[in-house]
Design brief:
Layout (H helix, E strand, L loop, with lengths): L2 H48 L3 H16 L2 H11 L9 H26 L3 H9 L4 H31 L11 H12 L3 H32 L1
Helix pairs in contact: 1-2, 1-4, 1-6, 1-7, 1-8, 2-4, 3-4, 4-6, 5-6, 6-8, 7-8
Length: 223
């Protein structure tokens, strides 16, 4: 790449930057919405997988297996393009959030389940001997410790969601990647806008990693 070509790429990246930054809150909104909705759903699925009721274990295990065993892009297509054939029509925003939420919930459920199982059984027995019922034991003894164990994986899930939001561009959601594509369609210069989009994704991920490390240090001091 000569100097003139490099200058062209830099100029196109700088020209695309305002548009891409304007779309960044949409990307963050999708990721945060999927995380906030996926956490309680993932927790419910984790409890179902740990349940003594065989039907609950079977249904929840099937859900996790399907969501983790199929591409997120296919899940988006099934929800947005497939459900209308069953009479359920969703707008692109709702379809994207639902797909991301269900996918995140499957991965979060495994993180939460593993964290709960990592707590020694002796602590449950000690809680029972103190007169705590199963609900109190879970809320007061198990979950506070499990949260420390699950934090790194949950943070990684959020970082992954930020990047996965790029897939909702295929259903016309104008998020970060789709904005870059629209700029390219206008300027016919792909390298700069895509590079600028990549740098924004990288910046967001790096910032979230810093927050993750800060939270881990705080939890470790409190343990």
């Amino acid at each position: 790449m000569n100097t003139e070509q490099l200058q062209l790429v830099l100029n196109s990246a700088l020209e695309a930057l305002p548009t891409l930054l304007g779309a960044t809150p949409i990307t963050l909104g999708f990721a945060l919405a999927a995380m906030l909705l996926g956490l309680p759903l993932g927790f419910a699925v984790a409890l179902a997988r740990l349940s003594g009721v065989r039907a609950l274990r079977g249904v929840s295990s099937l859900f996790v297996s399907f969501m983790r065993g199929t591409p997120l892009l296919v899940q988006i297509f099934v929800i947005y393009y497939g459900l209308p054939s069953l009479g359920v029509t969703l707008n692109p925003v709702a379809g994207g959030i639902i797909a991301l939420t269900l996918n995140a919930a499957a991965y979060l459920s495994e993180t939460i389940r593993a964290a709960i199982l990592s707590i020694p059984k002796g602590q449950r027995e000690a809680a029972t001997s103190l007169g705590l019922n199963p609900s109190q034991t879970m809320r007061l003894i198990i979950l506070p410790q499990a949260a420390r164990v699950a934090l790194p994986s949950m943070s990684n899930t959020l970082i992954g969601l930020v990047k996965d939001t790029s897939l909702v561009s295929v259903i016309t959601v104008v998020e970060l990647l789709r904005s870059a594509q629209l700029v390219i369609a206008r300027t016919f210069e792909p390298f700069g806008p895509y590079l600028a989009a990549a740098l924004i994704y990288w910046g967001i991920s790096s910032l979230l990693e810093l927050v993750q490390r800060a939270l881990e240090r705080r939890f470790s001091r409190g343990s």
